[in-house]
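Lab notebook, bench 4. The sequencing result for the construct came back, and we need a structural model before the next group meeting so we can plan mutations. Quick request posted to the team channel:

Model the 3D structure of this chain.
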Amino acid sequence: MAILEVKNLKAYYDEVQILWGVNFKVEKGSLTTILGPNGAGKTTTLKAIMGLLDKVEGEIIFEGENIKNLPPYKRVERGLVLVPEGRMIFPELTVLENLEIGAYTSKARKFAKKNLEHVFELFPRLKERIHQKAGTLSGGEQQMLAIGRGIMACPKLLILDEPSLGLAPKLVLSIFEIIKKLKEEGITLLLVEQNVHLALNIADYGYILENGKIVDEGDAKKLENDPKVLEAYLGI
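Done. Here's the predicted structure in token form:
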């Protein structure tokens, strides 16, 4: 069963059209990835889903309801949660304060204590730095904090936008281990990622976006083992 279905999605920045009728779905309990070269429209797709763009056409169906006209905070209240590209943490606030901000909806506040324990189980390093200002953390720790803040929001669908961006290879592997663990815990995930092989290695299903259109899709293992697909669309 699809928890999210995007139908004929078109998005614009002012008068410039970026997405041209994008269609995809995310099955409940799965890890779905969207891949594509820089400028393909991946982040635009996520912004459209979250209600962060002014001009969007098409349908965004979440748990059976078209949420296209809902404001962003209402989408978050329903369980649609984005961990944005570039982390977007609050550098002057502590680790704990950043995490508490993630639990701002009434539902998330009820589960804040339990979710905080879960975050610290996943990221013991954050617990060690609980009262440290977020801006003093390393890049990898800031990414852990951004994911942790997303978990605090009680996501039904957790969307990760380029979680490996700017991280050292060793840290990238540890972040992907955490994403894999979240999947094993039953959290539904939508992953946009530049590291094609790592993304396809842990995903169930993949879509390839190029020039604002879905140009290929399939089982992640099938895509990973198809050199024509990797070369034609991803330059690998």
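The domain at 1-69+194-236 is CATH 3.40.50.300 (Rossmann fold).
Will bring this to the meeting.
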